[in-house]
Amino acid sequence: MKCPFCQHDEIHVLDTRVSEEGDAIKRRRRCGKCDKRFTTYERIELSMPFVVKKNGSRTEYAEAKLRGSLMLALRKRPVAAAAVDDAVKAIAEKLLTSGKREVDSNYIGELVMAELKRLDKVAYIRFASVYKNFEDLAEFQDAIEEAGQERKRQE
């Protein structure tokens, strides 16, 4: 770090505290050359990975779009809004902890399906039918059987 006044790089930390909001570390510093004092703030910077779509284009992660997909699948289903919020947070956390700068949209789709399977089997089937592009009844039956087997394992 350089002094904002004289650009000297010998800086001493005089005091370190957590900010009033609790979201940053506040450091009081003094320049070793010009002896001027200044304050810096350190904040965590979290950046979501970019989403690589099927056509190869890249776009920013959009929490609103993820929530919209979940809500569409859960439409008229008895699932609490708090449960949807938790699912969105769980997916975002998995994306952040993956450490990747880019993730495939298919990966996000699989995360959504896992959360929907946990929340509501009917919503899971709704989402899977569109996501996996079901073409006939056999594919629906396979998905229903898979969801049913998951339910038996949980009991």
From TrEMBL:
A Gene Ontology BP annotation from the UniProt entry: negative regulation of DNA-templated transcription
Gene Ontology terms for molecular function: ATP binding; DNA binding; zinc ion binding
InterPro entries xref list: ATP-cone_dom, NrdR-like_N, RNR_NrdR-like
Key words of the record: ATP-binding, DNA-binding, Metal-binding, Nucleotide-binding, Repressor, Transcription, Transcription regulation, Zinc, Zinc-finger
Pfam families recorded: ATP-cone, Zn_ribbon_NrdR
Domain ATP-cone: 49-139
PROSITE patterns assigned to the protein according to its UniProt record, in alphabetical order: ATP_CONE
First and last residues of each zinc finger (unnamed): 3-34
Bound cofactor: record note: Binds 1 zinc ion.
Cofactors that this protein relies on: Zn(2+)
Family statement: Belongs to the NrdR family.
Job of this protein: Negatively regulates transcription of bacterial ribonucleotide reductase nrd genes and operons by binding to NrdR-boxes.
Name this protein carries in UniProt: Transcriptional repressor NrdR
Provenance organism: Pseudoduganella umbonata
